[in-house]
């Protein structure tokens, strides 16, 4: 059992009494799913081994994207799918950060704000690419909502292939390995467009004292795979892994985190209820897609992406790379004979 879920189970009623006004329906649904995860309330799956006739019954996972016990397989499958899309070129990671003064909107209207962040950031990148008239970009955007200390800190990590494809001429334009776009220019346009979009949105408003200088980071990350693995660690699992919770006392919880300024491990201790709300505030609204592909990396552009891959392979390599096979069917190894077991049924409580 996850230590975080066990803390939820013990403190659920007190958490509701103290923070009930701050707990949204999405957070309540997440709590309910996590408390049912791998229990009799969730149901069981039945497995059978055709080789030795061993059968087994296992409690079902809840499958919630914020549950620390679930989604490991989903993370692995996403990483494999993204690796299939990798091109033999260098990649950049661009990070669009929301300033502190606008984080109140993330608490009050998270779905509306996060949708705007995706649309504005992708529009900014497309505009910069159009100015250079070398073709379209391909990139993947991932929403993160927390800092290393697990405070609310919404930002977008965007992995961008280092090159453009001109579909009219069917030509690949290779970009500079160390430079994609000017980060200061990106930040200026990001600020102007996002503020304008917020001002026009019926559910959002502009707080006071908005800073004039915003932060956008743009750097080369090599050939893409390390950046994908970094992002995959935060996609489909809880905000804080159980192994980072190092001490639980009667009224407090201590967890460790990596301090980015010193690159050393530090600890943070909070009262139990405050710790639970610190993590639960990152539950995303239902229906919000936190990973989005654009350009020739989007799902509907598979034929175009294959054409680009073949074009680049003919330039850089003599033989094409092997295709990664993704297993989508649930399998389990038999504990008796080590053969694959088959899922033959699912039982759920009335």
Written account of the structure:
The protein has 350 residues and is of the alpha+beta class. The protein has helices at residues 3-19, 25-36, 72-85, 103-108, 110-132, 183-200, 225-232, 272-280, 302-316, and strands at 44-48, 55-59, 91-97, 138-146, 152-161, 163-166, 171-174, 216-220, 245-248, 252-259, 264-271, 291-295, 332-333, 340-347. The strands form four sheets. A five-stranded antiparallel beta sheet has the order 8-3-5-4-12, sandwiched between helices. Strands 2-1-14-13 form a four-stranded antiparallel beta sheet, with no helix packed on it. The longest helix has 23 residues, at 110-132. It is globular. The two termini are 24 Å apart.
SSE layout:
Elements: H1 3-19, H2 25-36, E1 44-48, E2 55-59, H3 72-85, E3 91-97, H4 103-108, H5 110-132, E4 138-146, E5 152-161, E6 163-166, E7 171-174, H6 183-200, E8 216-220, H7 225-232, E9 245-248, E10 252-259, E11 264-271, H8 272-280, E12 291-295, H9 302-316, E13 332-333, E14 340-347
Antiparallel strand pairs: 1-2, 1-14, 3-5, 3-8, 4-5, 4-12, 6-7, 9-10, 10-11, 13-14
